[in-house]
Amino acid sequence: MATRRGFVQAGLGAALGLAAAMGAGGPALAQEAEPIDVAAIYTVPVEQQWVSRIHLALQAAEERGDVTYTFSENVANTDYERVMREYADQGIDLIVGEVFGVERAAREVAADYPDTAFLMGSSFGPAGENFSVFDNWIHEPSYLTGMVAGSMTESNLIGMVGGYPIPEVNRLMHAFMDGAREVNPEVQFLVSFIGSWYDPPAAQEAAFAMIDSGADIMYAERYGVSDAAEERGVYAIGNVIDTQEEYPGTVIASALWHMEPTIDRAIAAVRDGSFTAEDYGPYSYMAHGGGSLAPMSADIIPGDVLDMVEAKRQEILDGLFRVNVNDTEPRSTR
Predict the structure, then answer these.
(1) What residue segments make up the domains of the chain, in order of their start?
(2) Residue 26: which pLDDT band, with cuts at 50, 70 and 90?
(3) What pLDDT was estimated at residue 197?
(4) What is the 3-state secondary structure (H, E, C) of the chain?
(5) Do domains 14-136+258-288 and 139-257+291-317 have the same CATH topology?
(6) Contacts of 258 by beta carbon, 8 Å cutoff, 6+ apart
(7) Is domain 14-136+258-288 given the CATH code 3.40.50.2300 in the classification?
(8) Bridge partners (DSSP) listed for residue 291
(9) What are the C-alpha distances in Å from 99 to residues 42, 61, 125, 147, 164?
């Protein structure tokens, strides 16, 4: 396990003092003007894009003095339950993680530790009184990046490389495809999954094969795809994190995930004693600041495309357009 990070600052002010700390209800004990103890359990390195957003939000909370933060990375699914129990036995106030491969075991752990708050990335719903769930619901900005891709492709063939065809990945891919089709009904897709959350060489090879088949834009759901796009001189669309500075002129649009609204809400609930089992998914929506579209370059993307995408973004925020949620596995259309 990684050691506890050392950026703990002073406790919060009087507004979160004794009165708040004595708040009613909730499984987790609130603290009086002291940082709460948070531990995170990751099945991949913290550099992996999805996990990196959780890690970043927790680091920011630690730097504010709201939490002390410990994490374990590269935890195998077969070891996940043990690590959860170890942290709970240490008296950690809030345990954060992603339990897509260990749903049943994780819920059993939470039931055995009713005084510990759990906030877990999950394909399913909350459980009991202390097991909350979240997910990266960034299908809205994914739709917008699809509009960009559909407008920019010249071959009318877009390649898409994902990790696993689980709902969390599928819905983003479908949203992207729907956005591309809105502006370009002729567009076709090549879809592939590499069977790993972090295998850049495999993702790169899958992308090369698609580019060789005529794809001139790549949807980079995994690390490695943008490297292939850069090497072959085609565009790429980013996912979850903004890599446009890392791949200038290659990554032209990105759907971003911001975990801060989710993490900060959970921390506040633990502090005031109100934490309970709920679905934090909506806090990844654009309306809550959990999702956004990365800035795009007018030097690459035509002004009329930028205007069209901005108009659709505003429609989403105004509640005038809803992006369809489709969790089924996407398939190649060519």
Answers:
(1) 14-136+258-288, 139-257+291-317
(2) very low
(3) 85
(4) CCCCCCCCCCCCCHHHCHHHHCCCCCCCCCCCCCCEEEEEECCCCCCCHHHHHHHHHHHHHHHHCCEEEEEECCCCHHHHHHHHHHHHHCCCCEEEEECCCCHHHHHHHHHHCCCCEEEEECCCCCECCCEEEECCCCHHHHHHHHHHHHHHCCCCEEEEEECCCCHHHHHHHHHHHHHHHHHCCCCEEEEEECCCCCCHHHHHHHHHHHHHCCCCEEEECCCCHHHHHHHHCCEEEEEECCCCCCCCCCEEEEEEECCHHHHHHHHHHHHCCCCCCCECHHHHCHHHCCEEECCCCCCCCCHHHHHHHHHHHHHHHCCCCCCCCCCCCCCCCC
(5) yes
(6) 53, 57, 284, 289, 290, 291, 292
(7) yes
(8) 257
(9) 9, 22, 12, 32, 14
How much is the pLDDT for 198?
85
CATH code linked to domain 139-257+291-317: 3.40.50.2300
Do residues 22 and 76 touch, judged by C-beta distance below 8 A?
no
User: Which of these, 113, 81, 111, lies nearest to 97 by C-alpha position?
Assistant: 81
φ/ψ bin of 266: left (φ > 0), alpha (ψ from -120 to 50), beta (otherwise): alpha
| Rounded CA separation 47/94 (Å) | 22
Q: Does residue 193 contact residue 173 with C-beta atoms inside 8 Å?
A: no
Distance, in Å, from the CA atom of 261 to the CA atom of 309, rounded to the nearest integer, reads 24
Q: Are strands 235-240 and 291-293 parallel, antiparallel or unpaired?
A: unpaired
Distances (CA, A) of 76 to 107, 181, 198: 17, 39, 13
Let me know: does 157 contact 334? Beta carbons within 8 Å: yes
What digits encode the pLDDT tens for the residues 44-97?
Answer: 999 888 999 999 999 999 999 999 999 999 999 999 999 999 999 999 999 999
